[in-house]
Write a structure and sequence with these properties.
The chain is mainly beta and 296 residues long. The protein has strands at residues 2-3, 7-8, 22-24, 46-48, 55-58, 61-64, 68-75, 84-92, 100-109, 114-122, 128-135, 141-148, 158-167, 170-177, 184-185, 189-190, 202-209, 216-225, 236-238, 250-255, 268-272, 281-287, 291-295. A hairpin with a 5-residue loop joins strand 11 and strand 12 (141-148).
Length: 296
């Protein structure tokens, strides 16, 4: 269900929100390699940072099937670079490793890690660490934030949902219990670079493990846009400032367009004042055009 268009809690993880633009629950048969799997909604496939890396589906979850340093996988097509929420369900296997970390990769570019990553690290103590990192074009870590260092993450059949709301340069991380429940929202992280340049629209996964049975596995990766307000319309171009309007004439009114971050269709309405702006009366109601003929 949605609350105010900003919170996604779906009790059946197999059913995504109605307005999801990209979604995958990894429903291919066991042993399917990730780059041979077709996502449920949106993108047409997955690409790996190193072809042949053993990203593999098991029990409708995906993860690395062998010991690996940090690896990356992303959807082939662009998704979004602003005004969206991204989330992932993270499943903990039955053994703890010393170098286990995985999560969601977004505002990404290329295949080697450039972009932002929200990861859950498994350690014996504390139970779990939620981290945010941003990597630059050289894949060097340029932002590194430990969000919370004591997430309860029981062993075995336990899954945690991690996610982030992306609004301009602001990233708001959150966690939710698997299958629905109260969302815990953490402090906003301000990106030190604006990635809304049209090239950072990829979304994917990252994983690292030193023991196969200790690795994390992933499910229900989703991207859901949210609506942002449009800009103010441009200045009036007709009539010009100081132009005299005679009663009974038809006056052309024209103005510059507004822009909408979500590329939604826009409509305009206009008011008129005859007392210097003290009171206003409607002149025209909602319309899509940028001109209006005012019969005075």
């Amino acid at each position: 269900a949605w609350a105010g268009g900003q919170q996604r809690v779906f009790t059946d993880p197999a059913i995504p929100p109605a307005n999801v633009v990209a979604y995958d629950r990894f429903s291919s048969p066991d042993a399917t390699m990730l780059d041979a799997h077709v996502p449920d909604i949106g993108p047409t496939g997955w690409v790996l940072d190193i072809p042949g890396t053993s990203w593999q589906i098991l029990n409708q979850q995906v993860g690395l099937a062998d010991v690996n340093p940090r690896r990356w996988a992303r959807w082939i097509e662009d998704v979004l670079d602003d005004a969206f929420e991204v989330s992932l369900d993270v499943y903990r296997q039955g053994t703890d490793g010393t170098n286990v970390l995985g999560g969601i990769w977004f505002l990404a570019k290329g295949t080697a890690g450039e972009g932002c990553c929200l990861s859950l690290a498994r350690k014996t103590s504390p139970p779990g660490t939620l981290k945010f990192q941003r990597r630059d074009a050289t894949t060097a870590v340029v932002q590194d934030v430990t969000i919370v260092d004591d997430i309860a993450f029981p062993v075995g059949a336990s899954t945690y949902r991690i996610g982030a709301r992306v609004d301009g340069i602001n990233v708001t991380p959150y966690t939710e219990p698997y299958g629905g429940g109260a969302r815990t929202t953490y402090a906003v992280i301000a990106l030190t670079a604006d990635l809304r340049d049209g090239t950072h629209k990829k979304v994917g996964l990252t994983d690292r493990q030193d023991v196969v049975t200790a690795g994390l596995r992933f499910d229900n990766v989703a991207v859901v846009p949210f609506n942002l307000p449009p800009t103010a319309p441009g200045a009036f171009t007709e009539p010009t400032m100081g132009e005299v309007v005679n009663p009974g004439s038809v006056v052309a009114v024209a103005w510059g367009p507004a822009t909408d971050p979500n590329v939604d269709p826009l409509q305009y309405e206009g008011d008129v004042s005859s007392d210097g702006g003290a009171t206003w009366a409607p002149l025209w109601m909602l319309q899509a055009g940028l001109t209006y003929d005012w019969d005075t």
